[in-house]
Amino acid sequence: MLEEKMWLLIEEFEELSEFLGGYFHQDMEPLEEVWAEIVENANRKNTTLLLNDIDRFLNSNLSHIEKEEFIKENCDLYFPAINTTPLEWLIQMQIEFKKLLPSLKD
To answer: CA dist 24 to 60, 67, 82, 103, Å?
Structure first.
């Protein structure tokens, strides 16, 4: 993907980009600990904003390859090691956030 297009997508999907880079970076803990940290820091407002961004991203006109490149460019997960693709992983994160949302405080 062209660098210019990536920057435009980062701006368009700012919440998603910040989430990916903020939690899934090169110095991150094991995924279970990262999820525990996400849950600890989550609130209804920010989680709703993130879910909206994920929904817009997944429903965008970007190609499958562009979506996967965006995810890989914005986080430091090595997807073969966790036996999934970037899109499958993001969809699973979306499902987990939707489960979490009702228990969150404002």
So the answer is: 23, 17, 13, 23
Extents of the domains making up the chain: 3-103
> Is the Cβ–Cβ distance between 23 and 34 less than 8 Å?
yes
Q: In Å, how far are 13, 75, 87 from 7, measured between CA atoms?
A: 10, 14, 19
Q: What is the torsion angle, in degrees rounded to the nearest 10, for the CA atoms of residue 74, residue 77, residue 82 and residue 86?
A: 10
Summarize pLDDT for 8-47 with one digit per residue, the tens: 999 999 999 999 999 998 888 888 899 999 999 999 999 9
| pTM score | 0.90
